[in-house]
What does this fold into?
Amino acid sequence: MVLCAKVELIIYFILLLTSQANEKQKVTLYLDWLNQFQFAGYYIAKEKGFYNEVNLDVNIIEYSNNNITKKVIENESTYGIGKSSLIVDKFEGNNIILLSSIFQNSPLVLISLANSNIKTPKDLINKKVMITGDAKQSASIESMIASQGVNLKDITIQEHSFDIEDLINGTTDAMACYLSNEPYILNQKNIKFNVLNPNDYNFNFYEGILFTSKKESENNQIRVQNFNEASLRGWKYAFDNIEETAKLIYEKYNTQNKSLDLLIYEGSILKDFAKIDNNSLGNIHPQTIDEIKRFYTLLGLNTSNTLFETKTILFNKNDILLNEKQLEYLENNKFTLLIENNKVPFSFKNTNEIIGIEIDFWKLISNKLSKPFNIEEMLKNEFLNIFTSSIKTKFIYSFEKKHSNKYLLSNSIAQIPIALATKDKVNYISDLSSLKSISIGVLKDLDLISTLKKDYPEINFIEITSIEDGMRKIKENKLFALIDNLYTLSHKIEEFKIDELKINNTLKYKIDMYLETDRKHEEFIKIINNAIFTLTEKEKSTILNNYQLILYHKNIDLFYVLKFIIPLVILLTIFAFLNYRLKNEIKRRKQIEIKLSNFANNDSLTNIYNRRKIEELCENELKRSERYENELSLIFFDINDFKIINDKLGHHKGDEVLIKIANIISQNIRSSDYFGRWGGDEFLIVLPQTNISKTKNIIETLENKLKDSDFNLDKDMKISCSFGFAEYEKNDTLDSLLRKADDSMYKIKNDYKSNKSLKI
It folds into this structure.
């Protein structure tokens, strides 16, 4: 009897321990608003079992007038959603850790009815505006207003009702709204409206920040990492499947009783703010946090004058956190990457050494895990190799992650751009929708042709089995263009020395790069995913950029390069302390207006007009020329061989060249002219009251000034520019005038390249 009792007791404890081992870790997530698509990734992670896979039981609680930061700090196992104002909470002594920012820019804007004629911040004078009373929340809007020389005292600030009907019925003239919500309601009511967006004035703030307490991050690192990774996985799924996600919210998380169409609309808008197509989902850049810190400090919201190092508020994603089981698995197993030796530039032999994008990523992951990995050539695309005890894997590429009963896929390692190759003489194609009744070849391996046919039904897409066949058909005029990944296209054009072909543009589509292995190796995939999680954007871009041979023609940058510019933000003071004397207050406010105006209207590197401002000035001059029949000309130019300067001497030297050229041009144009940076190494000069003859004389002067200037570069490196020009003609629009100037520059650029080739 005693023996039986002891056995029963042992069995009881075994069962108890087993039960405890399998018990999910309970955590709580506090939302900063009511249920809607703004939090879709967390609903998906819960409903699709992503949290469950990492042993987490997550309770999602929507907003109810509570202090989320306080709840996260005081309660264990908790996480919260916040805004950039979390920086102020940190100033106030709250020990919080930021994990990921879902939205890289805030969708918070000012909306007014079209008939109010509020098109600029200056139009808000003597108007009623609803914004939140919390300066932390409305900082971007107030900064935008002040940057345009508008004193907030000249505006009637109303308490926010969060009811769009107050805008419709005239209770207020403008209202702080989210682009993902109120515009849909107004469109449904056929009400036209205007938007004032702080992002257009360079006042950008993070939104939808996932955070936790310092205590939680220190005591439960693996749990924090798992929760963060599962959440981001949920967000990736939500944005890839917007309609499905919206339906889930509509049926299960719809406390606001939003329509399904509104939820779908909300998802499509928020996807742009997440910048998921740029592979930026969840990114938090220390430089941006530094800028936000300075901004809030100068704003006067750092009342305690507290300073903290940026790294103390950010979760360290570079540490790969493996449990004991995974460490043992890593130690006791061999891992082999199977590759093809002729898949340029992804894997190929170079003087008996296997190199390529796949090899570099495999080595990077190996270094992250401090584990030497094998590499072996693959036979017939099968999982075969000499290492019988080795766990085998290979890279695959897919437009969408496909699940298989036989194989497992890792998380996405990197995104590969899809590009369009055409003949060299074909002008830049900004959008495939502009093309009709033409044939475009699509590489079969992309698995993209059905999507393209659906998106562009007026184009004849033809499946091509090899890139060589596609290029040959372009040369024979059997195809207008060819679609494949950017890197393969680039290398094939270079390999075959096909001068008449070029990369015309990249498309909106990207394929993901995964590691694939047998389904029985689930632990391997989990470890690999941990390593992938720590890959930085810099590490990814460094590898990919090493294998990009052919760049776009400069006119490709005309409309899109601006978004890749990272401005050096100048953060400024808006409000004075109440105890300042009135004289100092007026003086200070005037200084603020000047500085904010400079920040909103000037390029942060060269200090000339930025693209938004020079475009605005050009529009104004165009209207003036149309009204009074005045002469008007444009000069559009870029720097020849600017990429070579960056590649050989570094981007810091490239920045010096940009600054000096901007100074030279500024000093040698008239005071009545306008000069701005269009983007990258492209610039625009607006010449009021100027005909084409005078414009050519100005260009000649500028060319001579540049030629005579010392840029302190290598002796064999000369600085020159390709100047294009255009003169206003009746019925010209801004777009048509810019296009003429761009075409002119393109011809000059071709002449420069031809002369350069002859000299060589």
